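Please, structure for the following, as tokens.
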Amino acid sequence: MIKNLHISTFVKRLRTGKIALLCALGLITACSSSIEKPRLVKDFPIEEPGVYGPETSGNPDDFRGAAIVNSQDFLIGGPLARGKVGDILIQNDKVRFILRQPDRMAGIGTYGGNIVDADLFRPKSEPGQDNFGFMYPLLNIAWTTNCVRIDVVNDSFDNGPVVVRTSCYIDVYDYIMTSVITTFSAVTAGTSLFYADRFNDAVEPFKFIDELSQLNTVVITDYTLKEDSSYLIMETKMENLSPDSARFPFGEWLNGSGPFGLFVPKQGFPYDSLIGNPHGLIYQGLQDDIPVSYGYFQNSFRCPQKEDGLYPGAAAIAVSGVTISVMCEESLLKLLPVGNGTVEMKHELKPGINTMTRYFVVGNGDAASVTNEAYKALGAQTLSASGTVLDSDNNPVENARVFFMTEDADFSKRQPITIAFTDENGQFATTIPTGNDAAGKMLGSPNGKYMVEVYKEGYLRKGTNLAGICDEGNLDELNFEWSNIQCTLGKYATFKPTVDVDGQPGPARV
């Protein structure tokens, strides 16, 4: 039973013991009896904690809508599935999601009320393919949401999009303690990081920092699924009771977790941990047999507009499969600067109710099936693009990767927008932004001009470092169609080197 309190007794004890240990070790300086008190100055009780709504019924293959899972037959299943009876299922003809019931979980997910499983819709005769790790909100860097109540607001598509609402408290994310970051950075990297008291959970910033003290401690999130969409709309609402705006970092912790590569539109597969201001994050299968992909996109239109008329992406970093995305910010080093720098924050909570909107997409394995839905969610104008990939003998090639790139004569300056996989007939089809609106410029080519490249492991076109080449196809600008793009791969070959050491075969790195 979840108590109708801001912090459960268990969390209080865990937190108190943790800080007491750090105080004893001298790792933090803000040590006082205040750790025994509630961390937040206000407590807005959430009435009747629990899960409320209809339960699943009938044939799992026929279920459409939102309901509380009362049988394992309604769970998704898959390599990383963690759903259980009592969780909430959201499902249409295309996709399905599991929201975890309010509880405290073992591991870094910590609290319920967030997405734990996601997959394309599959009949029960097929195994589920959930390969997603976790996702949960990031509040003021070191806080998240501790959800205590979930309501199925609309359970049936007969009444419009289905909606599930979580009611949560702001609570410390126990795996991130900004109060010891400086110690670890100094010891392990020899770098001095500065963090403001507003990020230090040990000094109760929501009580003692004026700018944060007038925030309602209840956080409401609506999860909305339309009948014909492959994306879940996530709208988090926070209330600022002050007449003045409050600077407040907001974002997400994400873990694709499964056999995925992180693809960022206009950046490709990032090599560095720090990712430069992405507007979206895509988890694409690394192997040909991964039948699902995922995407996270934020609605940046609430961010301060830039001089070029567009909107900023996010400050993001990916470490060991976990990605931090902080909405509207330029860099995490602006929030936690090196040395005694000035903390800079872009995202604000204006007086009254603020809504932060994000979209979580499920695709069929490639990036293109994800970006197609993201363009719809963000309202970007698109044109359809389709074609075929053949080998040097004019045979269709399955699972070739077709890259849509921004147009530039300098190869190094071309930016990958999306990647489409070919089917068993060597055919591919997707949509790409025209660049005629803000969303299209942020996720696609600013001028609407593209180049197409093809890749397939084992193929190489003679005299180049490319797997193959693609022609221009047929562009019908009036009807927004780009068709008959034909890509031809080079010869297929394998490379088997032999290394001699003093006339004998020996080991070597190739």
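The two ends are 59 Å apart (CA to CA). DSSP finds seven helices and 32 strands in the chain.
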